[in-house]
């Protein structure tokens, strides 16, 4: 079973794109119709709080022993809101919490290529040791030094 999903929505909270898993989870955890073109009320209210002091950085919903986490992902375009969804089951299987710091472009690339954000993160983990660096800033510095 797929454990991650992505939703792209307009600033007015209309769904521009949602993969099938994300669409199904929004309905299961927040109610409403599966084919609706607007984000559920609870998600919209959470997104509207962005920028407020003490605004939560993520939204969690629980159904039985399963949790769904939503995290807003900044995108390069101001015309879309990116949401990363992660399903965590009772046994704790899910995306490790340390991989939540993807750049805005990484989920976009994953969507374009048809791969999950976890795959993007895994590629980064494998690239850093090959370059002899520990993070993307060092990798960028390495790349700029290597380019004539």
Quick structural summary:
The chain has 148 residues and is of the alpha+beta class. It is built from five helices and five strands, in the order E-E-H-H-E-E-E-H-H-H.
Structural overview:
With 148 residues, the chain is an alpha+beta fold. Helices cover 36% and strands 22% of the residues. It is built from five helices and five strands; from the N terminus they run E-E-H-H-E-E-E-H-H-H. It has a five-stranded antiparallel sheet, covered by helices on one side. Helix 3 crosses helix 4 (117-131).
Record keyword descriptors for this entry:
single chain, 148 residues, alpha+beta, globular
Q: What's the Cα radius of gyration?
A: 17 Å
Number of helices: 5
Strand content: 15-25%
Q: Biggest sheet, in brief? A: 5 strands, antiparallel
Helix content: 25-40%
Structural class: alpha+beta
Query: What is the quaternary state of this protein?
Result: single chain
How far apart the termini lie comes to: 45 Å
| Unreliable residue stretches | 92-99
- Outline: globular
Strand element count: 5
Could you state the order of secondary-structure elements as H and E?
EEHHEEEHHH
Mean pLDDT: 78
Strand order of the biggest β-sheet: 2-1-5-4-3
């Amino acid at each position: 079973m797929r454990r991650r999903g992505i939703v792209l929505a307009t600033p007015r909270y209309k769904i521009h794109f949602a993969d099938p898993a994300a669409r199904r989870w929004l309905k299961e955890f927040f109610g409403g119709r599966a084919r609706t073109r607007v984000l559920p009320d609870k998600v919209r209210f959470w997104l509207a709080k962005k920028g407020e002091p003490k605004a939560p950085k993520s939204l969690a919903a629980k159904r039985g022993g399963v949790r769904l986490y939503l995290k807003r992902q900044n995108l390069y375009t101001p015309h879309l809101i990116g949401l990363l969804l992660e399903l965590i089951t009772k046994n704790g299987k899910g995306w490790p919490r340390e991989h939540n710091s993807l750049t805005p472009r990484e989920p976009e690339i994953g969507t374009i290529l048809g791969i999950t954000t976890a795959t993007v993160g895994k590629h980064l983990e494998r690239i850093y040791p090959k370059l002899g660096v520990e993070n993307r800033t060092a990798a960028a510095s390495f790349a700029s030094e290597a380019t004539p």
